Every structure is written in structure tokens, then in C-alpha cells.
């Protein structure tokens, strides 16, 4: 009160630093959730899940089971890869846990030679794709688009601040294929092992040590790596009396691409899609502004090549929409709070004084939020929106008491001082009570605590600042602005009473007092009143919206996951997904559509902005459009602002057992029953044993008599049928795999495998059909293991009451 200038300066400094803090806070859609999870991935290309399980997953899992603070371990064995997921106690130091995991992995022995080095990942919820960019062209092929994306676009985007990595989907990487002429090989008696050894021996650089020449030391190297494809063609595979046998004599060298596994189409055109993953804690808005700048420059350059880069999904758009909505709510809430204050206080000066508490308290809150590392997200903004109505409470109490003293005839400085002094203890107690409700959330370590930490911090900081404002700024402003207080009389006050609905307050007051007198006239009336209140309370419970953990939000993207008939190859998957695409292209609400088919089959439909508030009709239309495609099952849901994949509610049911076949018998029945429950959009299992396979059984005894091992026979089959990488061709800084394979046209039937010739150590050819037995069966596509026990995981969408149904 005595130093108003100092208070004004402090308030201005708080506002300035608050604005600076706001500008430095990272902006993102949702809070960062750092789950205590670490994943380990070990690739073993071309190997089936049963072998992955026994040779890779089980040894690693047994060793990792001894990691400290581990609460759960889950593994997935799928074709060519083993993934092990480790869950730790909340609050554990993930860096130390990662070192412990690495230590245990180094103790694992006897893994197959062809397994790749383990990849350890400890990502947060923040490290995921924030944008998908389609690279398309009406004249350039997707393989060329892949090369352009890998060599030009991806490096430029990955150099941007805040970008973690860029993943490429669609197109194929370059590969040097050595396509064997099987007849030419067998006529010369040359084995696959000879070819593989010859290529490996010829394509290498080797160190030769050092030579001391006087005062200088010179390194010696032997250079033998292939510099041109002609060097590969001229590799001598064998020496014969008639002359050397060159690789070109028994094989064709193709500068080609790897086997097609995944295709991407964007709005009906073949394309390559780039998924931009940001680093944890990076500002999504700033990252996407940098990406937009790069895309603008690249589109100008790529236009000369008939290549266009189009943003299919951009999370920053949803962030801006969310921020605009919350800011709008904040503004409306602030205006309504001022209007309500005017209605009740019936004094413009008092309303103006109290209204200062709202912006000052909220802006000051950003200083504390930035200092504790919070981001500006929808949870933070929601907390500030809640706080708008709460920050004025302390100011109202203080100003009302100041006003009371002024009405008693005290001078305005004295009234301001006494009014604040008498109630500061009460508002302190009120503030501490509110903090006692929200502060415990900050100390919760689980996911709920991390998710709602920002809302607790926002409200707590805002309430604390409102306490400071109410006992400093409010008394100072009251001592300067409030002036003398007189009884409200005269034409001016009568008009103000009409404008502020004082007459309505009188009606409400008389009704309330009359009701109280009526209730006090008999016990029966009190009982009836209590019963009516209880009845209204019970009836109101039916009006509550369905309970859910987190809302979906208003993202305008729909995600569909397709389940195709078991055993579908890439061509069949592309054929079915093209049917799905053609039907979805006719949806009028569609803004963009891209389809991924092959190893996984996904559809992303981006709707026009005017439809984002209600996508249920679009989702229903999509389901109806594909329900008659034979063998295709689709799970479609709106992508949520909090979930990783879709906005649907998911319930996971684990079915455990020791025998996969026994589990599958019961699961088939269970799956049909679950899909029949109203509200279950899709129930699917993580284990599928319906994929067909040919199993080759080797007669070990006969093979041993001929000097052949199981490994040599298996590698021959693998090389001729599937192809096997044997070396690397270095070109322009890139390492291109050299793959040895048979002619695909020669192995269009399983009986062709029986005609393969393998060579004994003495060089005698042996027909493979005399050593093997081929059976047809089914293979597990991938399986899930929990704590070493086999199990299956089911996914259920949009069925909250499913838990109750499962207990029946």
C-alpha cells in the first residue's frame, strides 16, 4: 500500500518473465510419459518363429530375467526377429537399467552366427512420428523415389533441430543380385559353397602393416574390393584344364532391388512415405516449421523432376487447433468470470480490480511451469482453464473485506490494510486446502501421475500466485482506485441494480427464505425433501456420459488395420488392398488417403476439417464398404490424441499355457464369442498358426554317410529359394548387399526343390530328393511369451463394459 511503484514494477517484471517463459516452453500435443520400459530387438533374417524362440528369444530371456527392479518381461518371436520387452518398477533410473540390460546381453552365449547385434531402445511416449510425408510422382517409379528420399530428402530433414529420425516406407533398397544359372552350375560341377567362398575371398581390402622408410612410417594395404560390377562378373570360381570358370559363366549379375515386401499408395498413386520422429522434449511446432521450410525448398527443386512432397498427416495442425480451442475457452471463461463478478459486486471499479488477478496469476504460472520442465500441451492448458475461476476467489474475499471497512467510514488506505490483514490467514488456509487436493498427483510415479502432473502443477502454481496477488496487488489497487464508499442510492445506482439483475437476486433470496420456513414447519416435509433430493441424485446418475480413461479428441484421421487371408503373398495383399483403396477413394469426406500393404496392412484416411467433430458416420461407412470383400477383416477407429495408434479403448486378455496347439483350440472358440459381443469392434489374436509352410526333414544318417551336414544342405536350399547375402558392394559411399540366389522362375513349385543337386566333399553330385522328406503344415506368424510362459494377447476396441462381461 505504501510502495505502489514497487508493486507495479514487480508485476511488470513477472509479466515479462512469464511471457518469456511461455515462448521457451516446448509445444506438443500431450505430456511426455516416460514409461519404465526397455525393449531389446535381435534380428535373425529369414528364420521362422519356432527357431527364433528356441535359438534367440529363450537364451536372452533367461539371462534378462535376472535384471534388477524388473517387474515383467514379455517377448515376441516372429519371422526374422525377436523382440523382448522389459517393464521395470516406476521411478527406476532407466539409464542404469539400460546398462544392466546391456551387461546381461553381453553374457549371452551360443547365439547363431547370423544374428545381428541387439538393439536396445528406451523410448518415451514423446518419441514417435509427428508427421507423415508422401513422396509421389506420376512418371518416376517408387524405387527411384526411394533413392531420392534416402539420399536427398531424409538427410536434410534429419539435420533439423528436434528431429530424431526419419523412417521410410515403400519402395525398395538397391541390391546386387547374383542370379545363378543352375544348369550351367551343375554341368560344371560347381557348388554354391564354392561360389560363396570365391566372392568373399575376392571382395576384400586387407591391412598389410607398416614400412619404415627413413624417418617416415607408411601404411601398407592390399586393395581388392569390387569397384565395378565387372569385377564381380570376372571372379574366378574354379580352375579347369580348359581354363578358368568365371562367375559370369554360371550366373547373371543384376543391379536390382531387394524383394518387394511393402508398398505404399497415396491418394491412389504409388508413393514413398516418410515418418518424421521427433526427439523427446523437442517443440513439435518448431520442428514442423523447420520441416515446412525444407519441404518448400525441396518442392521447388523436385518440381523439375516431376516429384512432389505432400504432408499427409501433421500433428502440429491438431496442436494449433487444440491450443486455439483452449485459448478461446480461457478467453470466454475470463470474460464470464468478470461478468459474474460485476453481477454480484455491482461495482465496475471492484470488478476491474479483481479482474487483474486473472492475467497476472496465469502469466506468472508460466515461469514456474517452464522452470520445472513442463511443456505447453492440452493438459497444461486445461489446468489453466480450470484455474481461471479459482484464481479470483482469494481476490474476492480480500476485496469484499476491504469494501466492508470502507463502508464503515475508514480511509481507503486503512480499509485496504485492515481488509487484507484480517482475511489473509483464511485465504492462506483455503489455498493450502486446494493445494492438498492437487499436489499429491505430482508425486504419483505411475502413468496417471505423469499424465496429469501438468494439470496439477498449473492449478497449484496459479492458486499460489493468486494468493500473492490478493495480498499485494489487490490491496494496493483498492487503496488507489476504490475511493469513498457510500450507500447505493440515487438514479445511477438504480440503473446499475437493473443492469446487474439485483431484482433477480431478490426473487431468488425470497424464494430461498420461504422454502426454508416451509421446511421447518414439520418433520414430514423434511423427510419428503430429503427423499426428493435423493431421487433426483439417483436419476442424474443416468445422465452421466460413459466413463473412459482418456477422451479420443477431435483428430480428423481414421486408422484401419487389415487382416488378410492366412498365407497371402505380397501380390495378393496388394490386390486386396487395392480393392479397399478404390472403395475408400469414393468417400466424399476424404481429404487424403494412404494405404500400406505387404508385411503389415494399414489404411490412414484423413478427413476434411469440417467432419472432424464427428467421424462415427465415416467410420461406419468405411466398415460397410469393405465388409463384402472375401477374407478381409478390418478394425477401424479414430486416432486419439492420447493413444499411440487409435482412439478406441483397448482391453488385452492374456490366455496362457504351455502348449500352443492346446491354446489355439480354446482361443478359436473364444475369439468368435468375443466378436459377437455388442460394442466389440474387433477381437484378434497375436498368434496365428494358419500360415502355410513346407517343412524339409533331412535324413541325417544318409547325409552323414555322404559327408554332408544339415547346415550345408539348409544353406543350399536357402540360397537357391530365398537368396542369401554373401558380401557388400561399396558404391558412392553406400554399402549395397550382394545376394546369391537361384532363378525365381526355376522354383515355382515345391517339387523343384527335390531336383536340387548338392555336392559331397569328393565332388559327387547328390539329388536332394534322396536326402529329404517334404511335409506341408502351418507356421506361427508370431507368438507372445510372458515370464517364459506361452500366451496370446487379444485386442478389443470400444468396449468398456467388456471387463464385466468377461467375469460372467
Describe this structure in words.
By secondary structure, this protein is α+β, with helices and mostly antiparallel strands. Among the domains are: 4-22 and 319-483, Multidrug efflux transporter AcrB transmembrane domain (Multidrug efflux transporter AcrB transmembrane fold); 35-123, Multidrug efflux transporter AcrB pore domain (Alpha-Beta Plaits); 174-257 and 691-779, Multidrug efflux transporter AcrB TolC docking domain, DN and DC subdomains (2-Layer Sandwich); 501-542; 652-689 and 780-808, no CATH class. Helices cover 47% and strands 24% of the residues. It has 25 helices and 29 strands. The strands form 7 sheets. Strands 5, 6, 13, 14, 15, 16, 17, 18 and 19 form a 9-stranded antiparallel beta sheet that branches. The radius of gyration is 36 Å and the shape is elongated. The two termini are 69 Å apart. The model is unreliable at 644-648 and 785-807 (pLDDT under 50).
Largest sheet: 9 strands, antiparallel
The fourth-level CATH homologous superfamily of the domain at 4-22 and 319-483 is Multidrug efflux transporter AcrB transmembrane domain
Tally of strands: 29
Q: Can you give the mean pLDDT?
A: 81
The CATH class designation of the domain at 4-22 and 319-483 is Mainly Alpha
Poorly predicted runs: 644-648, 785-807
The secondary structure category is alpha+beta
Outline: elongated
Please count the helical segments: 25
Helix content: 40-55%
- Percent strand: 15-25%
Amino acid at each position: 500500500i505504501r510502495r505502489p511503484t514497487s508493486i507495479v514494477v514487480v508485476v511488470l517484471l513477472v509479466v515479462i518473465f512469464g511471457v518469456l517463459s511461455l515462448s521457451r516452453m516446448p509445444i506438443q500435443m500431450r505430456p511426455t510419459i516416460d514409461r519404465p520400459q526397455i525393449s531389446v530387438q535381435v534380428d535373425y533374417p529369414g528364420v521362422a518363429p519356432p527357431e527364433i524362440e528356441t535359438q534367440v528369444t529363450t537364451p536372452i530371456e533367461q539371462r534378462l530375467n535376472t535384471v534388477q527392479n524388473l517387474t515383467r518381461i514379455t517377448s515376441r518371436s516372429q519371422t526374422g526377429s525377436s523382440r523382448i520387452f522389459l517393464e521395470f518398477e516406476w521411478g527406476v533410473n532407466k539409464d542404469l537399467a539400460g546398462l544392466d540390460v546391456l551387461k546381461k546381453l553381453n553374457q549371452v552365449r551360443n547365439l547363431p552366427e547370423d544374428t545381428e547385434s541387439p538393439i536396445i531402445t528406451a523410448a518415451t511416449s514423446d518419441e514417435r512420428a509427428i508427421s507423415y510425408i508422401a513422396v509421389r510422382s506420376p512418371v518416376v517409379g517408387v524405387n527411384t523415389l526411394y533413392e531420392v528420399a534416402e539420399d536427398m530428402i531424409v538427410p536434410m530433414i534429419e539435420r533439423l533441430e528436434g528431429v530424431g529420425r526419419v523412417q521410410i516406407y515403400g519402395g525398395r533398397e538397391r541390391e546386387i543380385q547374383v542370379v545363378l544359372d543352375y544348369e550351367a552350375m551343375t554341368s560344371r560341377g560347381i557348388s554354391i559353397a564354392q561360389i560363396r567362398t570365391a566372392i568373399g575371398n575376392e571382395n576384400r581390402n586387407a591391412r598389410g602393416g607398416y614400412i619404415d622408410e627413413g624417418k617416415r612410417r607408411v601404411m601398407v594395404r592390399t586393395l581388392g574390393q569390387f569397384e565395378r560390377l565387372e569385377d564381380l562378373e570376372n571372379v574366378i570360381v574354379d580352375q579347369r584344364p580348359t581354363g578358368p570358370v568365371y562367375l559370369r559363366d554360371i550366373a547373371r549379375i543384376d543391379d536390382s532391388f531387394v524383394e518387394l515386401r511393402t508398398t505404399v499408395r497415396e491418394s491412389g498413386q504409388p508413393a514413398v512415405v516418410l515418418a518424421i520422429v521427433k526427439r523427446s522434449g523437442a517443440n513439435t511446432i518448431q520442428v514442423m516449421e523447420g520441416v515446412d521450410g525444407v519441404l518448400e525448398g525441396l518442392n521447388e527443386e523436385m518440381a523439375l523432376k516431376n516429384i512432389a512432397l505432400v504432408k499427409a498427416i501433421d500433428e502440429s495442425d491438431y496442436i494449433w487447433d487444440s491450443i486455439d480451442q483452449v485459448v478461446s475457452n480461457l478467453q470466454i471463461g475470463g470474460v464470464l468470470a468478470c461478468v459474474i463478478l460485476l453481477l454480484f459486486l455491482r461495482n465496475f471499479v471492484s470488478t476491474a480490480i479483481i479482474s487483474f488477478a486473472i492475467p497476472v496469476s496465469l502469466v506468472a504460472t508460466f515461469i514456474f511451469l517452464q522452470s520445472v520442465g513442463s511443456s505447453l500441451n492440452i493438459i497444461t492448458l486445461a489446468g489453466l482453464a480450470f484455474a481461471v475461476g479459482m484464481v479470483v476467489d482469494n481476490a474476492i474475499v480480500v476485496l469484499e473485506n476491504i469494501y466492508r471497512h470502507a463502508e464503515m467510514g475508514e480511509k481507503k488506505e486503512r480499509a485496504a490494510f485492515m481488509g487484507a490483514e484480517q482475511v489473509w490467514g483464511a485465504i492462506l488456509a483455503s489455498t493450502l486446502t486446494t493445494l492438498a487436493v492437487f499436489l499429491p498427483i505430482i508425486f504419483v510415479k505411475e502413468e496417471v501421475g505423469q499424465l496429469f502432473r501438468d494439470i496439477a502443477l498449473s492449478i497449484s502454481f496459479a492458486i499460489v500466485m493468486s494468493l500473492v496477488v490478493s495480498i499485494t496487488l489487490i490491496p494496493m489497487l483498492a487503496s488507489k482506485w476504490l475511493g469513498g464508499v457510500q450507500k447505493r442510492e440515487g438514479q445511477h445506482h438504480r440503473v446499475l441494480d437493473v443492469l446487474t439483475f439485483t431484482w433477480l437476486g431478490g426473487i431468488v433470496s425470497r424464494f430461498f427464505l420461504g422454502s426454508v420456513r416451509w421446511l421447518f414447519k414439520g418433520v414430514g416435509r423434511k423427510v419428503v425433501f430429503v427423499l426428493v433430493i435423493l431421487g433426483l441424485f439417483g436419476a442424474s446418475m443416468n445422465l452421466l456420459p460413459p466413463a473412459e480413461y482418456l477422451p479420443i479428441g477431435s483428430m480428423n484421421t481414421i486408422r484401419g488395420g487389415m487382416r488378410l487371408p492366412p498365407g497371402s503373398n505380397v501380390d495378393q495383399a496388394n490386390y486386396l488392398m487395392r480393392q479397399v483403396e478404390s472403395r475408400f477413394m469414393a468417400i466424399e469426406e476424404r481429404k487424403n488417403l494412404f494405404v500400406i500393404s505387404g508385411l503389415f496392412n494399414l489404411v490412414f484416411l484423413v478427413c476434411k476439417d469440417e467432419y472432424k467433430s464427428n467421424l462415427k458416420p465415416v467410420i461406419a461407412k468405411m466398415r460397410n464398404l469393405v465388409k463384402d470383400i472375401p477374407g478381409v477383416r478390418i478394425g477401424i477407429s479414430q486416432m486419439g490424441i492420447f493413444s499411440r495408434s487409435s482412439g478406441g479403448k483397448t482391453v488385452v486378455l492374456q490366455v496362457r499355457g504351455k502348449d500352443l496347439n492346446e491354446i489355439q483350440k480354446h482361443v478359436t472358440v473364444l475369439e468368435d464369442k468375443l466378436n459377437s459381443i455388442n460394442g466389440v469392434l474387433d477381437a484378434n489374436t497375436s498368434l496365428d498358426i494358419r500360415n502355410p509352410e513346407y517343412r524339409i526333414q533331412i535324413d541325417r544318417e544318409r547325409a552323414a554317410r555322404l559327408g554332408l551336414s544339415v547346415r550345408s544342405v539348409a544353406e543350399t536350399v536357402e540360397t537357391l529359394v530365398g537368396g542369401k547375402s554373401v558380401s557388400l558392394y561399396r558404391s558412392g559411399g553406400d554399402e549395397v548387399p550382394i545376394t546369391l540366389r537361384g532363378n525365381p522362375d526355376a522354383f515355382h513349385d515345391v517339387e523343384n526343390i527335390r531336383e536340387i543337386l548338392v555336392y559331397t566333399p569328393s565332388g559327387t553330385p547328390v539329388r536332394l530328393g534322396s536326402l529329404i522328406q517334404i511335409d506341408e503344415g502351418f507356421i506361427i506368424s508370431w507368438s507372445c511369451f510372458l515370464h517364459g510362459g506361452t500366451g496370446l494377447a487379444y485386442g478389443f476396441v470400444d468396449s468398456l463394459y467388456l471387463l464385466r462381461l468377461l467375469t460372467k
